[in-house]
Amino acid sequence: MDEFLIKFSGKKSKYKELQEHIKHLIISGALPHHYKLPSIRKLANKLDVNPVTIVNCYKSLEREGYVYTISGGGTYVIADNNLTNLNEDFIDQSSTHNIKYDLASSSPSPLFFPVKTFKNLLNEVLERDGGFAFNYQESEGYLPLRQSLQSLLTEYKIKVSHHYIHVITGGQQGLDVIAKTLLQEGDYVFTEEPCYPGAIATFSSRGAKVIGIPIREKGIDLVILEKELKKYNPKFIYVMPDFQSPTGYLYDLTHRKKLLELANKYSFTIVEDDHFADLNYSQTKLPPLKALDINDNVIYIKSFSKVFMPGLRLALLVAPPLFNEPLQEAKQFSDISTSGFLQRTFDLYLRKGLWNEHVNKVKLIYQRRCQSMLSALERHFPSCVKFSKPQGGLSIWVQLPEILKAKELQKVALKKGISITIGDDFFIQRKENFFRLSFTNLSEKEIEKPIKELASIIKGML
Amino acid sequence: MDEFLIKFSGKKSKYKELQEHIKHLIISGALPHHYKLPSIRKLANKLDVNPVTIVNCYKSLEREGYVYTISGGGTYVIADNNLTNLNEDFIDQSSTHNIKYDLASSSPSPLFFPVKTFKNLLNEVLERDGGFAFNYQESEGYLPLRQSLQSLLTEYKIKVSHHYIHVITGGQQGLDVIAKTLLQEGDYVFTEEPCYPGAIATFSSRGAKVIGIPIREKGIDLVILEKELKKYNPKFIYVMPDFQSPTGYLYDLTHRKKLLELANKYSFTIVEDDHFADLNYSQTKLPPLKALDINDNVIYIKSFSKVFMPGLRLALLVAPPLFNEPLQEAKQFSDISTSGFLQRTFDLYLRKGLWNEHVNKVKLIYQRRCQSMLSALERHFPSCVKFSKPQGGLSIWVQLPEILKAKELQKVALKKGISITIGDDFFIQRKENFFRLSFTNLSEKEIEKPIKELASIIKGML
């Protein structure tokens, strides 16, 4: 922590001088995002000042939006322009650094990542494999991991040989290799509407025409879907049957089966994106489409970003035999292979049976946060504002009266230190009165306050 | 190592029974590729047998191609079908498991990866950043790493702000995002010929037409290039000025400057792929095109796979201002972001000033292996066989007389446990009498034998 050493000039108060110094370290990038600042006691000792000086300095940095604190967990450098959220949701919130209540990011909370366990496994892999852990890996994935994944998938009733299981560098890469394999200029693709904007962008960038089919509480609108199927001949339809992003809706069994029937009748492929199936807070678990897919019409992607850790960039893809080789080739030409080192470590994690334990732990946490947010919404939001009541996932989808724009709400909320994700980009036919609230990054107790604040802003807009 | 425990039935000799058991563990995938088997002493103790039993068992497994030994370094499970090579060079060598002399793979040798150092840094990052190390990262890359890379690039005379430096998931992803950004169906792309097949495949898969311009010892053929430029209007030309893959040729300063002039005159972009500039065994260091690029015509990719460790999947891309945002967007839609955990660790590696030390170490090793292979080629190969005399990189490019096919040589060599990479796929206008010999995976002493063997096969074919 030598970078914190300064010679006080005595021209300003010590806490001010130290604050300027740390600000400079942050702006210059010398302290990375989310860097944990030294504890108050340690830094006070190091600089030989009263701990109160450090307390004042850190508080002041926090007020100015350079750092954030985790109660009992220390002080951290904030991400520049809150970029972590930007990346994920493509929403510009750069107008402020000073977000106290992050309801925008649906990234899982880093506080619940199994860091210690994973660290031990990283070391175990390096002890075992040495340099080979850092060599090229097969582009379809590290064989033992594919076998572990085969066994994991049986828990979701998906029975498939590891020959059809591909390790990919995150769910987004799955969409990319599928687009590369199946799409050519002018092809049609159907998606749910609203839909994850990263998917729409990926399909469009291959020159495909994307048609949105409305999603309802129990699944995609099958009547409209069949009507559109009579007009167009889509290469595939992209769906998230479990806690769809952004709505949080869950397909019932009827919608699942009917969608598979339609795929057979109209000969299209279904791309099933499973980010959230593990975060199911209800008692009923429905089989993924892939588990019901007797005709090999489903390409299945399971991401480990939302339930586990996004920084690993790990997901799996299950290919129908017909597309198995082309998808592998597309993956190979995308990035050769996914990091073998991270694959080996994740393999060990699965083999040691740690997966379910982790899932159960985070499920409980997020379930409580979800309930806490839902009840705050019930209490504070005016009745003209509708919101989903998801039984899984990491966020709630909110619909304002049509006369209101979510963007306006976002602007005012940001000034009060609250970030939300507006819905505009999730629509192909743009709608401006929707927004998404995520409950991943606030504790149960913290959730009430920003919801109350949002409610009061909305009431003021009405 | 409980998986090695067996109850001997007594029906066969103990070493045979153990061998069957381990074979089963390997085939079933219970032992991953490159898994280090227990030491002879340890396993003998564990199973309460004579060490000779283990020695015989391991030797027999090696003869059958299930394991390989590193002299003084233990016994390892072989990669299934030698897939590591397949991924990289797309050559099917699955006809044998029993490769004693790997001259095909130009992957760097895992024996020289700085595993211990890197392990310490991985732990340091996790101590410092905790769960945040595993969160989403900005899609352009972890800011402190981009700043470290900015400083690293000045050593190559490339002066560019970190705003134009993107962290990407390996060099291949660089080609992919460039293709996504610049190419549409029917566009023309020029490459050197012969050329890395992964590049040709990536450009073709966007519907581009790839035209090969011959590469000579001092760089791309400028006369033919200009002739073709008058006929076509390529979106970009893809080149490797430093130790081109597969030829190992090095552009001289004239060729570098002239290429930049042509780019200006005919308005095309240059994609400069730097895999090998660090592995320069000569005394002269030429500036990369990007360092001479006053007109912002060059997109520069620097891979850390060949010189450092491929399993990290890390490379950097320098974008001209015009393409800065579109390239970042294409990266984002490819895999959101490169693993933040690995980025943070590599950043620490650079900040601790370990890069040059590593480069100097491996450079010396590979330089000696290069010399050793060149002198073996001089001694043994008939004079009708031509080969490059590279002053850098990891392999030598060999030209057989036109009546001979490299594929035939490959077949016979494989039977003798020698793998080579044939040149066919490196050509757009297919030629069949070229092959590539890599010297990464054999020690100086080991190189003579397989070269002598290859020479004798070639002489037999003449």
TrEMBL record, chains A, B:
Record's keyword annotation contains Chloroplast: no
Every HTH gntR-type domain range: 12-80
CDD domains (UniProt xref): AAT_like (cd00609), WHTH_GntR (cd07377)
Domain of life: Bacteria
UniProtKB keywords: Aminotransferase, DNA-binding, Pyridoxal phosphate, Transcription, Transcription regulation, Transferase
One Pfam match: GntR
PANTHER family noted in UniProt: HTH-TYPE TRANSCRIPTIONAL REGULATORY PROTEIN GABR (PTHR46577:SF1)
PROSITE patterns (alphabetical): HTH_GNTR
Single annotated GO MF: DNA-binding transcription factor activity
Family to which the UniProt record says this protein belongs: In the C-terminal section; belongs to the class-I pyridoxal-phosphate-dependent aminotransferase family.
Annotated protein name in UniProt: DNA-binding transcriptional regulator, MocR family, contains an aminotransferase domain
